[in-house]
Structures are given as C-alpha cells and as structure tokens.
Amino acid sequence: MKFMQKVALAIAGIALTATQFAAAQTLLNASYDVSREFYKDYNAAFVAHYKKTTGKDVKVDQSHGGSSAQARAVNDGLNADVVTMNTTTDVEFLAKSGIVAADWAKRFPNNASPTTSTMLFLVRNGNPKGIKDWNDLIRPDVKVIVVNPKTGGNGRMAYLAAWGYVRKTGGTDAQAAEFVSKLFKNVPVLAKGGRDATTIFLQRNIGDVLITFESEVVSVDREFGAGKVDAIHPSVSIIAENPVAVVERTVAKKGTGDLAKAYLNYLYSDEAQEIAAKHGIRPSNQKVLTKYASTFKPLQLFPVSEYFGSLSEAQKVHFNDGGQFDKIYTVK
Amino acid sequence: MTSAILSTSPLAGGLPAKRATRRVLPGFKLTLGYTLFYLSLIVLIPLSALLFKTFTLTWVEFWAAVASPRVLASYRLTFGASFVAALVNVFFGLLLAWVLVRYSFPGKKIIDALVDLPFALPTAVAGISLTALLAGNGWIGQYLEPLGIQLAFNRNGIVIALIFIGLPFVVRTVQPVLEDAEKELEEAATCLGASRWQTFRYVIFPTIAPALLTGFAMAFARAIGEYGSVIFIAGNMPMISEITPLIIIGKLEQYDYAGATAVATVMLGISFVMLLVINGLQAWQRRRSGGKS
User: Fold this and answer.
1) A189: chain B residues, CB-CB within 8 Å
2) Closest chain B residue to the Cα of A314, Cα to Cα
3) B261 Rama class: left (phi>0) / alpha (psi -120 to 50) / beta
4) What number of C-beta contacts closer than 8 Å exist between A and B?
C-alpha cells in the first residue's frame, strides 16, 4: 500500500510539473535576419526581468529571415506574437491586412522604433582607395557592393541615403537621380540581401566599398576578425528605423497580449538599449547613445520623411516595377 | 506492359458484354481515385491557387507585370541558359553513362554514387561552393581570371550552376537503357562490317535517343526552376544576369503577390508547352524506331 502511495505521489508530482511547464507562456518573435544575435541576448535579459517582476516563467522563441519574407510569413499565418522588423514598410503591410493595429506606430515611443540604424561604408583595411564620402562612390575607379533594392531593405536604404545626400547638399531631385544612377553603374554584383553583400565583399573579395547597415560592422568584426575592414562614416546618412509591433491576430488567439506588450516595452529599458548598442544597433535612449559615442560617431542623419514622405511612398516612386530604380537598368 | 494489363480488353472469346469491361486486376477504381485525389492535393490545387492569384489582375496589369523589359530579359536568360546547360548535360551525361555501363574500373561504385550528389545537395550549398571555386579569388578562378576568363558573377556562372544541378537527370535516364541494350545487335553490326561510328549511329543511338530526350527535358525543366544555386553565382544584375525566379522573389519583396504569380504563370505555361513538345518528339522517336519503348 505504501508503495502504491509513493507511486501515486510521484505521478501527481510529474503531472504537476508538467502542467506548470505547460503554463509557462511562450512568445514568438518574428524578426529580420541580422538581428538574431541581438535578440538572443535580449531574450535572456527579458526572461530574467519578467521572472523578477511578475514571478512568471516565459519562453521566447525566435524566427529570423529576410524582413519582408518574415512579414509575408506572418501575413500568411505564422503565429508570431510580435514582429520586430528593419523597415516600417513591412509593418505597414501587416497593418494594411489588419494583422497589426492600424495605429501601431503610436503604440510605443519613438514611432514604435526602440532602435535605429544607419547606412555606413565598409572599406578594406587602410582604405586603399581613399573613400570618404558619397562623392567617392561615383568615381570610375571605385567598385561598390550594395544590396539589390528590389530584394532587400538594406539596398533600399542605401539607395535612399545616396539620394538624400544629394538633396541635403543642395542638389535637385534630377541631380539625385543622376547621382544614384552613376553609383549603381559602379556596382559589379547586386547582392540579394545584407549578409550576401557582406560575403561578396569579404569572402569573394569583390569591390572596394560595401554600403551596409551600421550594425553589420560589429558582425563583420566578429565573423571575419577585427581590422579587416574600416568603417567610413559619410557626411550624411539616413535614419533606418527598426519598428516593432504586437501581432493582434495571434495575441487575441493565444491570450498573450500583455506579455507581448511587456516584451516590446522592455526594449526601451536602459538594459535593453545597452544590449542593442553592443550589437551596433543605435539606441533611442540618448544617455546610452552618448555612452557608446565611439561606436556611433555623430553624423548628419535625416529621416526618410524629409525627402520621401514615407517609406511606402518611396517604395512606390523608386522601387516598384517601372519606378526610378528600374529606369537605371532599362535605359541604356 | 502495365498499360496492356490495365487496358480494357474487349475479349473476342464470346464473353458477355458486362464481363468484357471488367479489368484483369482488381482495384482499378480505387487506385485511379486515389491517384486523382493525390495529384489534385499535391499538384493541381497549388497550381490553381497560382492561377487564381493571377486572375486578380486585369489584362493590362498582367501584361505590365510579365512583359516589362527586365522581365523579358530574364526569360531569355533563364530559358537560354537552361537550354545550353541541358545540351551540355546531354553530351557529357551520355559520356558518363557510357563509361559507367560499359567499363569496370576500381572505384566505379563511388563514381556512380557521386552522380546523384547534385540531387541530394541543398542547391544553396552548390551555389556557394561553385562560387568559392570560380570567383576571382577562388581555387580555380584565380588562375582563370588573369587569362580573361571570368566564370562567376555573370552568365557563365549561371550555366555552370545549371549544368551541375541537371547532370544526374541525363545520366540516370540513359544508364538503364544502355544497360538493357542488346549487345548481340552491336556484335551483329560489327560482324556485318559496320564501322564503330556506324554501329553507334545506326544501332546504339536509336535505342537511347528517347531516353536522351527525356533526360534533356528533365534537366531543362529542372534548370528553369532553379534558384538557390544560381543567385549565389549569377551577379544578379538586371537585364544581364537576373534569372526569372529572382524577379519573382523581387516582386514578393514588394508585396506584389499578384505580379509574382503572373510571372510564375508565364513560366509555368512556357515550361508546359516545352514539355509537351519534347513528349511529342519522344513519341515520334519511338514510332520511328519501331514502337520500342
């Protein structure tokens, strides 16, 4: 009889831990490709923070891929609780199909962008071609590696940054179009995405300069060893927001609304902003930004809205079929 | 053989009409039903979803999506490069199959297994390793570039990648036919005074021609749809080295689902017509070579 009691107790114990385990809520974060390392660190910090403040266990799963591909996956049914993207276009797309709240940009501070990034140049060690600013990229002896704006947000931002540089220095739209067109004539290989571009530049040794996100500098140093490339800060660049949003469709189904909100809110905490800074992602918190001033050298930044209205409008004018970018490659 | 068993046999043995329509093997209705159901589930439903998405476009939008200069250039490249790659594969695939069937040498089993590698390998891996080999600083590329031969990041790269992924199709379709080919016929031809070339031209080639065509068609079809290996080695420059699958991905990136499926539908249409033509050619071949299949 005693033995049976023990067995019953053991079974009850197992059942109890099992239910407790099942009770631990899970959260799925659908994010873009190169944020993998950042969110790995951030998730660990958030899980600890959530346990401390609410006493509840939570498990955060990550899903990474191209930013638009991730947005399409969520649109088509991926049950992510939150999306953390690198272009506002991707979240706007989800808002348009009603999966994300229409006023998503107002739900969190700073346009719902806890962090930003900007476009920088990477050149080979010692900067053999003496590249300093956008003007150098249209020199006939310079080969530029950039992501295809048709297939990657990274490329769209590089294109818009170049365009904005001309406008910022007093040029007209026509001059900007000519400048960008000249720049893309110097491109020997159009990369498919951000990581592809880095591989072409560093592993294949093609090109003299790579235009990419500031955060990629940190990954390059980590992957290829520090000192292989120098980061060049041009005089002017663009602010690329990293928007976040709660996926209303999923949280309504799973009942994870509060958790999702807490997850995204914590991105604005000092601790999370520091983690972002360590990964080369610009914090929105000024205090943290100044603390890491050596990484985030001050440069003149302009928002997309200054010259292009919004990213979706820029998409229509510049990158959709028949737009400005297509003209570069169809008019001989 | 199978068609003979399954076909209705209007037996001349004076059986009642009802019995004459009965099949020799049981379960025909069940298997046919299953076949149709399964094919619908796996092939027809996804393909019709493609068409339905395309139908959301007006004719003008459809035409704009599928006939812009960039897209036209990509069709030319995709079908052209696939054609060239399939041709190369027919020639060298036949050679490989020949060696594997007719000769024995140490390590033959390993080489035989190697042929299947492009089947199993993730295509992105193929693309990355080919690029690593052929790029200007790659193992092979570094010797070719000073000679002015550039194989990666242009159309040459695309053709090479497509040759790689298409190779097993030709070898694996020709190999069994060569194995089954009757040696006696060749011996007879030789006895009758035929030269080696004549034996090949009149005895061996007609036997394997349908298989070669099939291999060509499969390698060609496979190459048209190839994405993973090509984008790593192509350079992806619009109008020059941009394949159609990349255009489709580009359209998806701008959330143009309908445009992407429109281009996909055109691809599907062209591929289907080409497969029909090749099937017709095969049937003609078979008739010409005396109904042997």
Assistant:
1) 153, 235-237
2) B254
3) alpha
4) 78
CA angle centred on A242, ends A240 and A246, rounded to 5°? 150
Q: Tell me, rounded to whole angstroms, the distance of Cα B229 from its chain centroid.
A: 16
Enumerate residues 117 to 176 of chain A having a beta carbon within 8 A of any beta carbon in chain B: 148, 150-152
- CATH number for the segment(s) A119-238+299-328: 3.40.190.10
Listed as own residue / partner, the contacts of B105-113 with beta carbons closer than 8 Å and 24 or more positions apart are: none
Question: What pLDDT is recorded for position A2?
Answer: 62
Q: Where are the domains of chain A?
A: 2-116+241-291, 119-238+299-328
Helix (H, G, I), strand (E, B) or coil at B14: coil
> Does A205 contact chain B (CB < 8 Å)?
yes
**Encoding tokens for residue A260?**
């999702």
Residue, of B9 and A260, whose pLDDT is higher: A260
- Alpha-helical (H) ranges within A132-214 are 153-168, 173-185, 194-202
pLDDT for B163-185, tens place per residue?
A: 999 999 999 999 999 998 888 88
Among the partner residues B131, B238, B256, nearest to A329 by beta-carbon distance: B238
Instruction: Categorize the per-residue pLDDT at A312 as very low, low, confident or very high, splitting at 50, 70 and 90.
Output: confident
Residue length of chain A: 332
Instruction: Provide the shortest C-alpha distance from residue A29 to chain B (in Å).
Output: 20
- Partners of A230 in beta bridges: A123
**In a mutagenesis test of the A interface, which of B241, B255, B256 is the best target, namely the one with the most A β-carbons within 10 Å?**
B255
Residue type, A153: G
Sign of CA dihedral A140, A167, B236, B135: positive
A70 to chain B: closest CA residue: B253
> Nearest by CB to B131, which of A72, A204, A330?
A204
Architecture of domain A2-116+241-291: 3-Layer(aba) Sandwich (3.40)
B255/A330 touch (CB, cutoff 8 Å), yes or no: no
Q: For testing the chain B interface, which of A150, A202, A327 should be mutated: the one with the most B CBs within 10 Å?
A: A150
Beta partners for residue B231, in sequence order = none
B238 with A206: Cβ contact below 8 A: no
The gap from C-alpha B97 to its chain's centroid, in whole angstroms, comes to 17
How many Å apart are CA B132 and CA B154, to the nearest integer? Answer: 14
Q: Which of B68, B135, B153 sits opposite A322 (nearest CB)?
A: B68
pLDDT in tens, A156-189: 999 999 999 999 999 999 999 999 999 999 999 9
B184 interface with A at CB cutoff 8 Å? no
- pLDDT value, residue B293: 44
User: Domain residues of chain B, as ranges?
Assistant: 59-292
- The torsion region of residue B255 among left (phi > 0), alpha (psi -120 to 50) and beta comes to left
What CA–CA distance (Å, rounded) separates B179 from B98?
Answer: 9
Tell me the pTM: 0.81
Q: What is the CATH number of domain B59-292?
A: 1.10.3720.10
Domains A2-116+241-291 and A119-238+299-328 equal at CATH topology level: yes
CB-based contact A83:A31 (threshold 8 Å): yes
B256/A320 CB distance under 8 A: yes
